[in-house]
From TrEMBL:
Recorded superkingdom: Bacteria
Keyword Membrane included in the entry's annotation: yes
Transmembrane segments: 12-31, 51-68
Keywords: Membrane, Transmembrane, Transmembrane helix
Keyword Membrane: yes
Protein name stated in the entry: Pentapeptide repeat protein
Length: 433
């Protein structure tokens, strides 16, 4: 909005004009009353006062006009100042945004450069260089939480690569080359194993909640997914670790595998895996589906006090004993066609929502003492070669639909084979002949 500024000349001209108008009015009034009597004099004086009032009123009106213009100009100036301040704040915010975008772009480029260089190191044929790449990725992930899952995916991809361990030897080399070639090969395999062990340690070291699980001192990486499909894992340990989902399908665990007190908040897939050494899942918590279908446990497998949601061990093989003592299965548990070669301990285990042992094979001692079976229990076509102990086992009634009255326990031992004789605790079930 344009605003016209009054000049000094204009103000003087208006003042002169007001005085002239007052004088003219006074003269006119005096000229119009020339009588000399007392009444005439009074009229003249009234005329003069009237003229003076007109002059003063006109001057006051002019002063009021000037004050109004001054107030208006002040308000316009304040409004313009507010607009200028708003424009300045907007320009500052825009500069800040541009600066932040510039910093973000620079940080993204820096992260990309570091990530690219680290990944390039992993492709080196020299083990020390690959180790440097692993540690560079680990540091990058620690400093940039948004990159942690991506870097874990890279480390998992490294572990999924095929490898030959130091114990593997070749018998096809010529006699004159076998010593030197074997030494070089053995050294390369040792170095490769060290690289893989380092990758495993870098992953698991950041999956274990410690004293500092939050804040700048935290080394714990939350909500990490692991994909180690068909990987060869040596002495793998997730002891006391917490992950979201984990896929180990068709993986091979060489040596002792320790998952004690681990927590899986999502699905855990161990289908078709092979444990060449002992496997410890004691007190492990599976909050979602736990898939151990077609899994082979070559040596002793410990699931004592483990907690499962839905568990599937169908067609699995326990070659050296299985311990599920005090385990909790909150949903269905499937051990159909599972082979327990050297003893199965389910003492004090609680199946809350059904247990399927149909066609399972127990060639060693089967311990189901004080086990609680809720829901439907199926041992149909199972085979117990050695002793089976169900002393104190409890088969819970199932609530009938739409009523509060429970029905009889749904227990199926049809075609079950007890080579050492039917346990007396199962005599009440009429389907046992």
């Amino acid at each position: 909005m344009r605003y016209t500024v009054l000049s000094v000349k204009v103000i003087i001209a208006w003042a002169v004009l007001i005085v002239a108008v007052g004088g003219a009015v006074t003269a006119w009034l005096l000229m119009g009353h020339t009588d000399r009597d007392t009444e005439a004099d009074r009229l003249k004086l009234d005329a003069i006062r009237t003229a003076g009032s007109i002059v003063v009123g006109t001057g006051g009106a002019a002063a009021l006009l000037l004050a109004a213009r001054r107030q208006r100009s002040t308000e316009i100036a304040l409004r313009q100042k507010d607009r200028d301040q708003a424009d300045t704040a907007l320009a500052f915010a825009l500069r800040e945004r541009v600066a932040a975008d510039t910093r973000d772009d620079a940080a993204a480029r820096r992260i990309t450069d570091l990530y690219t260089k680290a990944v390039e190191l992993l492709g080196s044929p020299h083990a020390p260089v690959r180790l440097g790449g692993l540690y560079a990725l680990e540091r990058l992930a620690q400093d940039n939480p948004g990159q942690r899952q991506t870097i874990v995916n890279v480390l998992c991809a490294c572990l999924r690569m095929p490898c030959e361990l130091p114990d593997d030897t070749s018998d096809d080399l010529p006699v004159e080359q076998i010593e030197d070639t074997y030494r070089a090969t053995y050294r390369e395999r040792l170095q490769e194993r060290e690289v893989r062990l380092t990758a495993q340690r870098l992953i698991t070291a950041h999956l274990c909640p410690g004293e500092h699980t939050d804040g700048p001192l935290s080394t714990f990486w939350r909500d990490i997914d692991l994909d180690l499909t068909a990987a060869t894992l040596v002495g793998f340990s997730l002891r006391r670790c917490a992950v979201r989902t984990a896929v180990f399908r068709s993986a091979t665990f060489v040596g002792y595998a320790d998952f004690a007190s681990a927590a899986f908040s999502g699905d855990a897939d161990f289908g078709a895996t092979t444990f060449t050494g002992g496997a410890n899942f004691g007190a492990t918590r599976f909050a979602a589906d736990a898939d151990f279908e077609w899994t082979t446990f070559t040596e002793y497998a410990n699931f004592e006090a483990a907690t499962f949601a839905t568990a599937d061990f169908e067609w699995s093989t326990f070659g050296d004993g299985a311990d599920f003592e005090s385990a909790q299965f909150t949903h269905s548990a499937n051990f159909g066609s599972t082979t327990f070669t050297d003893g199965a301990d389910f003492e004090r285990t609680h199946f809350h929502d059904g247990a399927n042992f149909g066609a399972a094979g127990f060639t060693g001692y089967a311990d189901f003492r004080t086990t609680v079976f809720g829901g439907t229990t199926n041992f149909g076509a199972a085979t117990f070669t050695a002793n089976a102990d169900f002393h104190g086992a409890e088969f819970c009634p199932i609530p009938a639909p739409r009523t509060d009255s429970p029905t009889d326990p749904q227990v199926d031992f049809h075609s079950t084979t007890f080579e050492r004789g039917i346990p007396p605790e199962l005599a009440d079930y009429t389907d046992l002949d």
